[in-house]
Specification:
single chain, alpha/beta, five-stranded parallel β-sheet, 51% helix, elongated
Length: 256
Amino acid sequence: MRDEIKTEVIEVACRICGEPMQIEVPAAGQPFAATLRKLAHTATAHESCHAARIDDTRRARAAAARAERESALAAEWEKICPQEYRKEIDYNFAGCDPKKHAEVLRWSFDSQRGLILAGKTGRCKTRFLYDLLKREHFAGRKFFIRRHPEWRLEASKHAADSQDKLAHWLHRQAVAPLWVMDDLGKGTITQASEESLESLIDQRTRSQMPMIFTTNDSAKTLGSRLSADRGAPMLRRILGSCDVIRFEIDTTTTKS
């Protein structure tokens, strides 16, 4: 029968907090006693101190991961947002209404409703829009954004390349968590681009996927820019799926 190992209690300092603590080690003369005693003086810690150290390490790693993520998002945001709209919002600018800004920021992705910022130019609609998108971006939300004139040019380019490329481009927008069009109705709307836009809006409204628009038009002036067979159904879908924030709409002009 193996001899019972004799032990004794010694006092050591916790390697984390430095406070004294007692541990049981092999008594002098026992196998490996000298080695274990040496380890006890250098590697022993209170259980609470050890747990706290683990928590601190986890928090530090999480903070580093957050900082890395924030840095990556910030770099990405600089590519997404035009430099002008990265500036701090100046409410002293004529037409820049802080109440409208707050109203825009009350929008919630979770509502599954879209948003229309409608009104004449110079009312900071696009500036408020990008501030809203900045919030969504840093929350990890993916979105597709274009100005309507740029969107039409891209649609024409893809269509000229092949119908498959156009379909793939439109599908990418149809499934985007959030889809945004700035300056809806600006410029000449071609029949081909209107057809693509109608199809895209139809897909997103049927899937209850939110859209955000800015426009200088009223429903009436925008309707006059669209074709008779597509215009009314498209506007009905947009207005039925979006809440409207009005920025003093000027219905006497269609100027963008």
